[in-house]
Prior knowledge:
Elements: E1 4-8, E2 12-18, E3 33-39, H1 41-51, E4 55-63, H2 66-78, E5 85-88, E6 94-100, E7 106-111, H3 120-124, H4 127-132, E8 135-138, H5 144-156, E9 160-163, E10 181-182, H6 186-193, H7 200-212, E11 217-221, E12 227-231, E13 235-238, H8 251-266, H9 269-283, H10 296-302
Parallel strand pairs: 1-4, 1-8, 2-6, 4-5, 8-9, 9-10, 10-11
Antiparallel strand pairs: 2-3, 6-7, 11-12, 12-13
Amino acid sequence: MNDLVTIVGSYNVGIFLKSSAFPNPGETILADNYFEGPGGKGSNQALTAKILGANTTFIGKLGNDKYGDDALKLYKNLGVNTSNIFIDEGSHTGVSVILINSKGENLISVSLGANEKLSISDLDNCEKVFKDSKIIGFQLENTLDTVMHGINLSKKNNIITFLDPAPAQVLPNQIYNKLDFIKPNETETEILTGIKVENTEDAIEAGKWFLKNGVKNSIITMGKNGVVWVSKETTRYYSALKVAEIDTTGAGDIFAGSFLRFFAKTDNVDKSIKYAVVASSLSVEKEGVVESIPSRQHIQKYI
């Protein structure tokens, strides 16, 4: 059975600073804790899928620097296929600075660097991987032209497409009918649809908006308030696990990566969402992103 999960996306090293509160403009706050870790939405999703057992390929672009070297070592150590990762000599590897307060909330600033140089021709050079994939995941930390081309290339090869539309931006209408899955959170949903998501009913309304515009499945995540799945045949709500929130950074990426992993193995959307809800809920109990990906055994206890 073909169960290859391919992620086209970004790598950003995460520089984490944790303090009691966020600084106001012009204010300096001393951090209680500092650490670095791998990040970037695409990379997080690829690593989640791999750690949870998927056959995983990552397509992205790094700078020729220490952070890029660190990323390649990490992928190779974990068994992610790196043969479709490109190096841009003129750019730095992506960097994100993440501020975390005592409530586990975060503020993030990103300099995309080499991620913005991932090109249409790069993806054309990866067409064999597109043909061999079961499902291909995209986000919006590469240029929109490159993402659009990747989605079109996937559909040309009859491959299932999954878009995590973050960081959110208004999308051209022609993208929607090429998407088998879209997974926005509440903020991204409002930017894309104009519908403010304050409850489950709002999420269902937004999900129907995506379907009306051509998406086959909309999966709207609402953090601790759960998840709504809307398709032509189904409208379903999933509650999140009740956990102590230490750090919510990357929870959406862990949801996406675990969904992609489970769907590639099972073709079952309902079970894949349940699996992803558990994985992402458990992840907020730990600091960091890759460090907070729960094990398959831990997830299974809650399924």
